[in-house]
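The protein record filed here:
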Amino acid sequence: MTLVISTLTSSGIVLTADSRQTYKNSVGAIRIGSDSAIKLFKLTNFAGVAISGRAFINEDGQPLKNVGYFINKFKKTEKLERITVKEIAEKLNKYLSDIFVKREIDTLKKQIGELINKAGGKDLKFSTSDNNLVPYSYIDKNGKSVSDVGSIETINMIVAGVDNDEIGRAYAVALPKGITNNADTQQCGALWVGQTDVLTRIIKGYAPEAGNLNFVKKALTEDEQATINELNKMEYVINWGTITLQDAIDFCVLMTRTTENIQRFSDGSFLSPGGIAGVGGEVDIAIITPEKGFAWLKKKKLNYEEAELPTEQES
């Protein structure tokens, strides 16, 4: 799990990611595996990416490797310097999706089929999906029609950078669907992916699971758009266009640390119990501006006592 944030100001872009890595052990319990995972990467002199979601994938027939291995391989093998930030986001989505998505969806479909056959079901049909979800329907052993949705664990990321027109742009990407949201340094604003529930509560004014409240469900049924418009009035007014790069840094770090500390004391909500303390460790910070391109403000190093070594070549 992770919290990745990109804040876009009129002066440039701040891109941040925490360092916590969790995993599910052999009995299904979620454990903290590391607080030193690398989730923020430089792609070009003017673009970078921060990732959330699954930490390890593998090419067919190969051992598991962390996602960072494939991102570094991507930036070495693809010609990225002359294309736009949006094109980089699209190419990276395809590159990573091609490695694991189809194979894992095929495996999931096989597992679903085996479970349904074992339970006496029949007439299994899968619907098409443009993301990591696998909708399906079947007839159970009692002749009842059943619909359900399976899913594979996927990767979400923010690709951010400055294009040749000196406009900074950031794209939220969900594998394999592609770009789901975007922002730029003309309109300014912020994007976030990962464990965003705390941040969304603070900025938007209500939790993502509010849609499960009975009175909200009823209001949505009666007039969905009007209900959404009313809920949006809860959002804090933030004048993104007037904040400085330092303000943007402070915002990203504040939201990350607040999420980490709320997770420390809470175990989800009554509507969505069983929270995972998935945000923690150091916060890596990159700044991307038209004048200086991609620059590290804060980046983890390998260390022991007073000795330090960069995790990768720094520039």
User: Anything to note?
Assistant: The CA atoms of residues 247 and 264 lie 25 Å apart. Residues 3-83+154-310 form a domain with the Glutamine Phosphoribosylpyrophosphate, subunit 1, domain 1 fold (CATH 3.60.20.10). Helices lie at 67-77, 85-118, 197-204, 214-222, 224-232, 245-265.
